[in-house]
């Protein structure tokens, strides 16, 4: 079995559905109908380790999957699954076309500009069909970089590297920071400017 950190996230269990052990899953995949089907196996990690869940019943409603797992027949069973992340081994993922990537492939990539200057490392990918952005953590703090071919000119998944050619001022414009101004006497709880704390 693949290591947990090497698996791809496909959804998160949000809450029970009904009284017979079904759950509602918020999907993090573009292939909801193909991923959440009877007979499919998903992986979850609890306090006692990583376990598999086999889907017994499934349907999609309002963009979310309503799933029943084998051995989960009571609402109490479903409640224990609430909040758990669901993953699958990378080799089970659907193949993608050119210039298309799974989010987990982008997370952890080093980001540099066309001169080779380091911008930071991709912490996560935000956004949906309206447009996605790379959330990059580096010396500048947190920077948001649109995930477009015009800006992300080279993505090398094998080397975990993304080269960007941002328009002038983009990095400054999209820099996310908390700013705290010191009082005139230099006292108080504020401690000057600091970068937004992220994991």
Give the topology:
Elements: E1 8-17, E2 22-27, H1 32-35, E3 41-46, E4 49-61, E5 64-69, H2 75-81, E6 85-88, H3 103-106, E7 110-113, E8 118-128, E9 131-138, E10 141-146, E11 152-156, E12 161-164, H4 170-173, E13 175-178, E14 194-195
Parallel strand pairs: 7-12
Antiparallel strand pairs: 1-2, 1-6, 2-5, 3-4, 4-5, 7-8, 8-9, 9-10, 10-13, 11-12, 13-14
Q: What's the quick description here?
A:
This protein is 10% helix and 45% strand. The protein has helices spanning 32-35, 75-81, 103-106, 170-173, and strands at residues 8-17, 22-27, 41-46, 49-61, 64-69, 85-88, 110-113, 118-128, 131-138, 141-146, 152-156, 161-164, 175-178, 194-195.
Describe the structure.
The two termini are 27 Å apart. The chain is mainly beta. It is elongated, with a radius of gyration of 21 Å. Helices cover 10% and strands 45% of the residues. The strands form 2 sheets. The chain has an 8-stranded mixed beta sheet. The chain has a 6-stranded antiparallel beta sheet with strand order 3-4-5-2-1-6. It has 2 domains: 4-91, Elongation Factor Tu (Ef-tu), domain 3 (Beta Barrel); 103-177, Roll (SH3 type barrels).
